[in-house]
Amino acid sequence: MMMAAVRKSTNWFAIGVTAAAVVVVLIVGGVVWFANSQVGSPGTLPQSSAVNTETGAIAVGTGPKTVDTYIDFMCPICNQFEQSYGPTLDQLVADDQITLNIHPISILDRASQGTQYSTRSASAAYCVAVDDPANVPAFVKALYAQQPSENTAGLDDATLASIATSAGASDAVTSCINDGTYEKFVTAMTQKTPVQPGQSGIATPTIAVDGTVLSNQNDLTGDPKKDIVARLDG
């Protein structure tokens, strides 16, 4: 999601909805995270072989090239991205072509009736990564499958813990999620999200292919082979 006008009906943002509806989503779901937020201590660091505590990336796979995804679990456009691009990214990981770096960030807390759902769900993803990073992909997909609408309270901690254990995590994640163990870390890592070309603030999803940050408006067409694979091969 970005605070930008829809250029044409073939833009991947418009898949499954009208252009007018997309404009409503972009305005009502406003995702640009402004720079006036306070930077604080990262708090407890998620100690896991898969987590880069400097960037917040949760690594999936070990391929030589990289795709980084910066996502907010309440962002509906992130869910659209997952449905359109996820299968291709999963295959690239399975074929050992890429390392998929998932960055759970939080820019939509204001759209969850004060429950800070974006921060809580992102923190839960780190809880799963610390417990066993192999379960992160399943947890991410399950969160999207049960994604709450913007401007609702979101899923409560008990539901997040249930989703995590259903994805394979141990019961230890329950206390981690209930305690909000990595919430400060999420806030700190959100500030490190790169700004897309031509934008003045960060947005979700933000995608980088081998270190090059893409523009959602200009570079994401809905065709993962063109937008991701061709750039990796180029």
UniProtKB/TrEMBL annotation:
It comes from the Bacteria. Keywords: Membrane, Transmembrane, Transmembrane helix. The chain crosses the membrane at residues 12-35. It holds the Pfam family Thioredoxin_4. The keyword Zinc-finger does not apply. Residues 64-218 form the Thioredoxin-like fold domain. InterPro entries: Thioredoxin-like_fold (IPR012336), Thioredoxin-like_sf (IPR036249). This is Thioredoxin domain-containing protein. The lineage of its organism: Bacteria, Bacillati, Actinomycetota, Actinomycetes, Micrococcales.
